[in-house]
Design goal:
Elements: E1 12-21, E2 24-30, E3 40-47, E4 50-62, E5 65-73, E6 80-87, E7 94-102, E8 109-112, H1 131-145, H2 151-169
Antiparallel strand pairs: 1-2, 2-5, 3-4, 3-6, 4-5, 6-7, 7-8
Length: 170
């Protein structure tokens, strides 16, 4: 199906998290060892055409790894997925390779990746001339044939045919 490996990120995906702290949203990004966090910066959360600004401050240093703490007022966030961009200096903007999921009163979720990968529709592939292949084909033919009947009658016929097919095929 898809690739379950996390995207490359400029922070530790395991030790980073999002939470509500009082009336604020707090996102803690754990930077890799040896990376210095900016003392202060501006952070922009955006979702569609909406955007809001918050603050980014340097957090505690654990060993040789540091943390960046992003904060913004919770009441400014609408439900949805918010991308995150840091502005450590006046000239530069760094997009964080993560997103924030906000869903009402539910806990906040830090999602991997700056963008959502495209969904993949699973393709049913039955071996040709198998029981499932024949059943799927017969079901499509039956659905087309039953379009001339009223809905209630078609539903009853479909249920009867499925029940009989299950008895025969299993």
């Amino acid at each position: 199906m898809g690739n379950s490996l996390p995207p490359p990120a400029g922070f530790d995906l395991v030790d980073s998290y999002a939470r509500r702290r009082g009336d604020e949203v707090e996102v803690v990004l754990a930077l890799p060892a040896g990376t210095l966090a900016p003392p202060t910066a501006e952070v922009t959360f955006s979702s569609g055409r909406r955007s809001l600004n918050g603050t980014a401050t340097s957090g505690e240093v654990v060993g040789d790894a540091s943390r960046v703490i992003l904060r913004a007022p919770r009441d400014q966030f609408a439900n949805g997925i918010w991308s995150i961009a840091l502005k450590p200096t006046l000239e530069s903007v760094e997009r964080v390779n993560a997103r924030l999921l906000v869903q009402g009163e539910r806990p906040l979720v830090l999602l991997w990746g700056a963008r959502t990968p495209n969904s993949e529709i699973p393709v049913r592939t039955y071996p040709r001339y198998s029981r499932q292949w024949a059943t799927a084909g017969a079901g499509r033919v039956l659905d087309r044939a039953l379009t001339v009947l009223p809905d209630k009658k078609a539903r009853r016929v479909r249920q009867r045919v499925r029940k009989t097919a299950r008895r025969i095929l299993h």
